[in-house]
Amino acid sequence: MxxxxxxxxxxxxxxxxxxxKWRGMTIGLLGGSFNPAHEAHREISLAALKRLGLDHVWxxxxxQNPLKGTDDMAAxxxxxxxAQQVADHPRITVMDLERRMxxxxxxxxxxxxxxxxxxxxxxWLMGADxxxxxxxxxxxxxxxxxxxxxxFDRPGYSMSAIASKAGQKFRRQRLGETHASLLPRMKPPxxxxxxxxxxxxSATAIREKTLYSERL
Length: 216
Hints:
With 216 residues, this protein is an alpha/beta fold. The protein has a single domain (9-215), classed as 3-Layer(aba) Sandwich (Rossmann fold). 38% of the residues lie in helices and 16% in strands. It has ten helices and seven strands. A seven-stranded parallel beta sheet has the order 3-2-1-4-5-7-6, sandwiched between helices. Strand 1, helix 2 (39-51) and strand 2 form a beta-alpha-beta unit. The longest helix is centred in the N-terminal third of the chain and has 13 residues, at 39-51.
């Protein structure tokens, strides 16, 4: 796909947040279905704010993850509302940007954002479970070349994430964890793996528990 034209990006996507508000800031992007949002999402965001020295985190609630089915996918507005309740932090903003931009793939979303906000530094955030299957994402190598990214440990994925195709592809670009605060100022491809509390909570487990409770 061609890169967005800087001259008409504002007219094409008038519903995006104003660039002036975020000028000079470093923003962490946490994307996903958030089906539903839960405390592990919030913990990753708070850790990113602290360890990476971010100014803000955006939760990008996807209309539909291309790698997931639609059978148990809650409505987008419902997922956004729940995410706002869980986030509950002045430096975490929940957005439905992919619906506004009509993008299905993360690479397209990031490409538009870095063009629309030339004076804002973006960092892609994700759990180690996503790094383990990152190579299945559309244009995953381009994503790594567009923005730095930070990986946060998840139960059962520490080794498989590092040993994954993406982890090995960019192993030489991995930043030492003690230097995580330098990540926003570095040119991609560069990434860091942040260890910490491994919250076992997952959206799948929450949905299964809810379904079980409804059957009782």
